[in-house]
């Protein structure tokens, strides 16, 4: 995610993206090259960003994980997969064959 999307993260993690002095601030450069690759417009370009060091990212998050609320910790865990569809959707019969009828 770009720093402007840091609002999508829990509050205890946003600073990692927005503070240039954070442990992983170099993962979020404010200036970067664009590869137009034959395209005419900047919005069509490929943004050339540095690769991140997964170990550093994980360590930075682990240092702040205690700041997550109980609800945020729950949302950050693996759970059941849910699939839903309308009663008229073309995939409903396939779902019912694979997973059984919907609960009543």
TrEMBL record:
<feature type="domain" description="Xrn1 helical">
    <location>
        <begin position="1"/>
        <end position="80"/>
    </location>
</feature>
<dbReference type="Pfam" id="PF17846">
    <property type="entry name" value="XRN_M"/>
</dbReference>
<protein>
    <recommendedName>
        <fullName>Xrn1 helical domain-containing protein</fullName>
    </recommendedName>
</protein>
<dbReference type="GO" id="GO:0005634">
    <property type="term" value="C:nucleus"/>
</dbReference>
<dbReference type="GO" id="GO:0004534">
    <property type="term" value="F:5'-3' RNA exonuclease activity"/>
</dbReference>
<dbReference type="GO" id="GO:0003723">
    <property type="term" value="F:RNA binding"/>
</dbReference>
<dbReference type="GO" id="GO:0000956">
    <property type="term" value="P:nuclear-transcribed mRNA catabolic process"/>
</dbReference>
<dbReference type="InterPro" id="IPR027073">
    <property type="entry name" value="5_3_exoribonuclease"/>
</dbReference>
<dbReference type="InterPro" id="IPR041412">
    <property type="entry name" value="Xrn1_helical"/>
</dbReference>
